Amino acid sequence: MPLRIAFFGLPLAALLLAKDGHSIELCAVCRKDALGLRRARRVFGDRVIVKPRVTDAALLDRVARLQPDLVVSWFWTTRLPMRLVESARLGGIGVHPSLLPRHRGPDPTTWAILAGDAITGVSVHRIAAEYDTGAILEQEELVIDPRWTGWDLARALDRPSLRALRRTCMRLSRGETIAEIPQDEALVTHAPALGDDEHAIRWTWPTDRVLRHVRALAPAPGAFTEIAGALVTVLEAREAAHFPGALAPGEGYAEGGFAVIRTGDGAVILVRGEIDGAPADASALARLFLAPAPLLG
């Protein structure tokens, strides 16, 4: 039997669940510019609401009156009150873009790359009182391409996330018993949003860590450094095969049209970035080292 769903998040998932035959009784959208919002308004009409406050009594009462079978969260950005979740006959489920309990928190794709993970994935989990702590209903793994940026990884996880959500909803609609596996607290890691200062490149880090930092934060907000008084956002870099051993970490030079900067155990070549917010190719970045006193801070 199709499910009656109260949906919270990005409308693409709600549209796909409706395509599967489920009834979207409420479609709460988390962004005014969300992809698919216009189509969702055509399909769901006045069942679409944009950026509601989920703690408002009127919304809580509306969901309670709907008596949905299931609350679904797909990239909803605030905590859903348990009163709302418990209004549904089957409770609530969400999908997190990591293999929980690894990388709990708002920025799991960034942290997967920062940590050097070879494999990540998605987890369908019960919505619990605390973020990302509910029992696991399903997971799907994804091998991380070592060339991917944080943005690339986030986009690559969209399809498995939607597949896993749709499979789980279909199984629940058929009345299947799904094993609910509690998360192992001993294996928990956290993925908090980084502060602005944490976007800075520390040139004493090993080369591999510098390159992961650049990839994890590209294209936005971007890993940054300072060269010759200019704020440089590094969007792409690669390991340098050779460099003067006399350079200290953070010192650099231009060679063959590229900027080369010493790290804690090697050096990196700057391939692409921004200089004070303006796009910069490798040659523009190299020219910074022709200015007076180009050493980094």
Automatic annotation (TrEMBL):
Coiled coil: none
SUPFAM superfamilies named in the record: FMT C-terminal domain-like (SSF50486), Formyltransferase (SSF53328)
Domain Formyl transferase C-terminal: residue ranges: 197-283
Any one Gene Ontology molecular-function term assigned to this protein's record: methionyl-tRNA formyltransferase activity
Residue ranges of every copy of the Formyl transferase N-terminal domain listed in the record: 53-159
UniProt-recorded name of the protein: Methionyl-tRNA formyltransferase
InterPro entries given in the database record: Formyl_trans_C, Formyl_transf_N, Formyl_transf_N_sf, Formyl_transferase-like_C_sf
Superkingdom of the source species: Bacteria
Pfam families for this protein: Formyl_trans_C (PF02911), Formyl_trans_N (PF00551)
GO CC terms, sorted: cytosol
